[in-house]
Amino acid sequence: MREDTIMVIGAGQMGSGIAQVCAQSGYNVYMYDVSDDQIQKGMKRISGQLVKQAEKGRMPHQDVKRIYQRLSPSASLEDAGGAFLIIEAAIENMDVKKDIFKRLDEQTEEGAILASNTSSLSITELASVTKKPQNVIGMHFMNPVPVMQLVEVIRGLETSDQTYDAVVTVAERLDKVPIEVHDFPGFISNRILMPMINEAVFALYEGVAEKESIDGIMKLGMNHPMGPLALADLIGLDTCLYIMETLHRGFGDDKYRPCPLLRQYVSAGRLGKKTGKGFYTYGGN
Ligand SMILES: NC(=O)c1ccc[n+]([C@@H]2O[C@H](COP(=O)([O-])OP(=O)(O)OC[C@H]3O[C@@H](n4cnc5c(N)ncnc54)[C@H](O)[C@@H]3O)[C@@H](O)[C@H]2O)c1
């Protein structure tokens, strides 16, 4: 196990962003995904981002190659054995994440930290499938990872202070601001954000206003940098639906009922920016 090596599980928009900031901060990074295509796309996304930053004068051009070389695509969870920290950023599904955590538990050394970038799922439940629940923690990055400052750090029931302190140190080295919360559905960020997005989808569904008007009102009237429907497209409508389902199930309160329109879009494969179509249509994706 090496103190300079992190493994990221999932090479989607969040996993590739997390891998990028880790490599930029000097860590060696394995990036794993079940889909080889996603790994290739993730590596391409990272190199594009690094080049863009160099072109904007935010880093010297010679750093691009140096940072990129710290990244290793991985096709095997066995690589986790070489990492002191594993950050899981696979799809927002408890069964998928539990399976990953169970396998990571077998592949990693005693002191390795198993973190999840889950947006809403119970860290305590994820930890329960491992033999080291004291080493399991939530490390919730925001999208887009290279831009957003916050890392919401979620303590599970058994998370040790040592694990918490280690993760805070890593987050600070990544130039992020860690803020601690306890393990409740949606934590703080998505307990507050996602019902607002869901309400915006209900307003569209009920014909209260056009999508551009809903987003325009929230941007101009509330000073939000982007409207809730555009933000839902950025997050991914599948992820939004999973989070609402977790809130609905977790609190048993119908105020968290996912809007049927959100469900319909997800069923149709309209997942937002990542598939080229959600509430809006995106080119070149
Ligand atoms: N999208 C956001 O704005 C956002 C923000 C914070 C946290 N998150 C969380 O980050 C996680 C990933 O979200 P995303 O937006 O990157 O989704 P995404 O759809 O872009 O990527 C998910 C990736 O997980 C991979 N995957 C599926 N099953 C896997 C498995 N068994 N092992 C390894 N990889 C697997 C998929 O191939 C895909 O590449 C989710 O838990 C999500 O809730 C998302």
From TrEMBL:
Pfam families: 3HCDH, 3HCDH_N
InterPro entries, per the entry: 3-OHacyl-CoA_DH (IPR022694), 3-OHacyl-CoA_DH_CS (IPR006180), 3-OHacyl-CoA_DH_NAD-bd (IPR006176), 3HC_DH_C (IPR006108), 6-PGluconate_DH-like_C_sf (IPR008927), 6PGD_dom2 (IPR013328), NAD(P)-bd_dom_sf (IPR036291)
Keywords, ordered alphabetically: NAD, Oxidoreductase
Keyword NAD belongs to the record: yes
PROSITE patterns: 3HCDH
Top-level taxon in the UniProt lineage: Bacteria
SUPFAM superfamilies per the UniProt record, alphabetical: 6-phosphogluconate dehydrogenase C-terminal domain-like, NAD(P)-binding Rossmann-fold domains
Annotated 3-hydroxyacyl-CoA dehydrogenase NAD binding domain residues: 6-183
Any single biological process term in GO: butyrate metabolic process
Chain ranges of the 3-hydroxyacyl-CoA dehydrogenase C-terminal domain: 186-282
Residue numbers binding NAD(+): 10-15, 33, 92, 97, 119, 143, 274
Keyword Ligase: no
Site (Important for catalytic activity): 140
Pathway noted in the entry: Lipid metabolism; butanoate metabolism
A GO molecular-function annotation: NAD+ binding
Similarity comment: family membership: Belongs to the 3-hydroxyacyl-CoA dehydrogenase family.
Entries under NCBIfam families matching the protein: PRK05808.1 (NF004474)
Protein name: 3-hydroxybutyryl-CoA dehydrogenase MmgB
Source organism (scientific name): Bacillus sonorensis L12
Lineage of the species this protein comes from: Bacteria, Bacillati, Bacillota, Bacilli, Bacillales
